[in-house]
Amino acid sequence: MPRPPLSAWLRAVAAVICLAGMVELMSRPTETTAQQPAATRRPPVTFDSNLAWDHLRRQVAFGPRPAGSAALNETRRYILEQLKKAGIEGRQQVFIAKTPLGETSMANIIATIPGRRRERIILASHFDTKRAPDFRFVGANDGASSTAALLELGRVLTSRSNELTIELLFLDGEEAVNWNWGTTGVDNTYGSRHYVDAARKAGTLAGIKALVLLDMIGDRQLVLRRDLRSTGWLVEIIWSTAARLGHAAAFSDEPTEIEDDHIAFLRAGVAAVDVIDLEYPQWHTAQDDLEHVSARSLQIVGDVILASMPAIEKRAVQP
Ligand SMILES: [Zn+2]
Fold first, then answer.
1. What is the Å distance from ligand 1's center to 129 Cα?
2. How far is the CA of 308 from the centre of ligand 1 (A)?
3. Closest to 208 (Cα-Cα) out of 110, 306, 278
4. Which 8-state DSSP code applies to residue 185?
5. pLDDT bucket at 283, cuts 50 / 70 / 90
6. What confidence score (pLDDT) does residue 277 get?
7. Which H or E run includes 162?
């Protein structure tokens, strides 16, 4: 039987129904469009201690890296190269330091991850190693661990959108040039003292809302005590975040007092905290090597710092 012709009325009704269906299809997020973001959205970038470990290993492979050495130059090149790979702009801040061994050319590396605001939070680490007169000192923990973590933190933070600008600060000349440091009083922390002086002269000191310093964070038996000199609210945020993440064993509530690169910032009135493990029997010995550090410790500190960032950003801009 041939198909009966559709009446004009029926055609009109069909057209309306069809149009209504199309409008509904267009206005309602269909299953495909609703699922699309999930399918195309990348998982959030997280701290990868395998990558951090590789940065640590590479630094140790350069050998002893005291201020002014060729090996430290190589380390600096490595840091700049890795920053570039992560899409972070880094620059050198060259200066001449007056040391007990005469004038030494040093250079910090300043890398910027722009945020919505220009005020900045600095994450810092020294990358030089102690000049040891009688043995080969490679500083797997003291120098390499925190520098490695800083590079990895940069990779993660640059993938996020941050309220404040984040500055990664790689400091030269933290270690004393003279083995018996402390005797002269100023034979240490050359990089941080220069950085603070330069920021003061440039009028950018007020823009620094917080400094988080990492130092010796690779110890297999990680014990980070609360530094009494550090700014209270920064210590509180980081240590309570660590407890929340189940890392209270590594972030101990025991107090300690530390002289480190954060002191220059504190003296300039900048809120600052030092995250450091001084319970390290291999400190300033030939045994500060790959055997006495672990990727797991880097992971703990990386996770805790990243999880602390929102609270630090929030508190940092409070009047
Ligand atoms: Zn040291």
1. 7
2. 26
3. 110
4. S
5. very high
6. 97
7. none
C-alpha 284 – ligand 1 centre gap (Å): 6
> What spacing in Å lies between the alpha carbon of 188 and ligand 1's midpoint?
10
Q: How far is CA 57 from CA 72, 182, 279, 292, in A?
A: 14, 30, 22, 12
Asked whether the beta carbons of 253 and 243 are under 8 A apart, the reply is no
The Cα 118–Cα 200 span in angstroms is 16
The CA-based angle 144-231-202, given to 5 degrees, is 75
Cα-to-centroid distance, 5 and ligand 1 (Å): 93
The residue assigned the tokens 């003296």 is: 267
CA 266 to each of CA 84, 210, 241, 256: distance values in angstroms, whole numbers, following the listed order: 30, 10, 22, 16
What's the confidence (pLDDT) of residue 129? 97
Ligand 1 center–CA 165 separation, angstroms: 29
106 Cα: distance to centroid of ligand 1 (angstroms): 17
Rounded Cα distance, 112 and 167, in Å: 5
In the reported structure, the alpha carbon of residue 247 is separated from the centroid of ligand 1 by a whole-number distance in angstroms of 25
Average pLDDT score over residue span 163-185: 83
| Residue with token string 């206005």 | 27
- Residue 272 has φ and ψ, to the nearest 5°, of -150, 150
Distance CA(176)–CA(190), nearest Å, equals: 9
Separation CA 127–CA 139 (nearest Å) = 9
What span, in angstroms and rounded, lies between the C-alpha atoms of 13 and 248?
70
Q: Please state, in angstroms and as integers, the Cα–Cα distance from residue 132 to each residue in 9, 59, 165, 255, 286, following that order.
A: 97, 17, 37, 29, 9
Ligand 1: centre distance to CA 175 (Å): 6
- According to DSSP, residue 139 is labeled -
